[in-house]
Each structure stands twice: as structure tokens, then as C-alpha cells.
From TrEMBL:
This is DUF4304 domain-containing protein. InterPro entries: DUF4304. It comes from the Bacteria.
Length: 151
């Protein structure tokens, strides 16, 4: 598969944010949380989605968990509802946009909207504070994780 402007911009952002790529997913491992971020392509067209998942290390040790196996899972679009339409069009290659403009706008969006989320999920403590709680509220949360986060 060849990289397109969305994939290239996303990969550049994630690398710059200090994540490492394995099997198509981007990982950041801290003492308490493994953050997994994926760019998922729709099976129905040229649309993409940014998936965010968290593995809470006190609940078990793994090296590179799959996004669907993580304790918390959400999409970037769920975290910023007011900007969902803008994100959708930036992540849709069927929406005609010059490549350079798409790359610049997508990078700006990720910097403004994804970067603070990545900071809010760096530890159990950060997940218990306001920004982290917004992520938790917008996520599917497995039972043991809910207990750990409210402890």
C-alpha cells in the first residue's frame, strides 16, 4: 500500500509526538499507560478515522496491545464533537482539497486537538483530572479499568 497525504501527515505527527510504529499502530509506553493510536481506513471508501486506545499497565503487562484489546477505546471525532465535520472532511480523500492544503490543515488540527489528548492520557493520575476525564467519558471502558480509574 502506498502512503497518501493523510497517512504521511498522520505518521509525521505521531513520530514527532514521540510515538513508535509497530504493525500499523503507533505506541507510547509510560510507567502506567500504553497509548495506541491508529489511522483506520474505511472499508467503504477513502475516508479515515483516528482511533485512540489505552492499555492500563496495572491491569496486565503486554508489549504492544492491539487497539481492540485495550481497556479504553475511542475515536478522535468523539472527543471533539464541535469539530467532527472539519475532521471528517480532512480525513476524506473524496473531498477535493489540494494535497498541500490538506496536509497543513490536518497537521494543524492534530496539533490543536490530538496533542492535548495525548498529554491527558499519559498516566493514571492525568486520566483522573479534567482533560483525562473527558477522554474516559468519550471512551468504551472495560470493567476493571473503570474501577482502577475511580480508585
Amino acid at each position: 500500500m502506498t502512503s497518501n497525504v493523510i497517512q504521511a501527515t498522520f505518521d509525521g505527527f505521531m513520530k514527532g509526538a514521540g510515538f513508535s510504529k509497530r504493525s500499523g499502530s503507533w505506541y507510547r509506553i509510560t510507567d502506567e499507560v500504553i497509548t495506541v493510536v491508529e489511522l483506520q481506513k474505511s472499508q467503504y471508501g477513502l475516508q479515515y478515522y483516528v482511533n485512540l486506545a489505552l492499555w492500563l499497565r496495572p491491569l496486565g503487562e503486554v508489549k504492544t496491545p492491539k487497539e481492540q484489546a485495550c481497556h479504553l477505546r475511542t475515536r478522535l471525532s468523539r472527543l471533539d464533537g464541535s469539530e467532527e465535520g472539519r475532521l471528517s472532511s480532512l480525513l476524506d480523500l473524496d473531498v477535493p482539497t489540494p494535497e498541500r492544503e490538506r496536509a497543513e490543515n490536518l497537521l494543524a488540527f492534530l496539533t490543536t486537538h490530538l496533542a492535548p489528548v495525548l498529554e491527558a492520557v499519559v498516566s493514571l493520575n492525568s486520566l483522573r483530572h479534567e482533560a483525562g476525564q473527558k477522554v474516559v467519558a468519550a471512551s468504551l471502558v472495560m470493567g476493571p479499568a473503570r474501577e482502577l480509574l475511580t480508585a
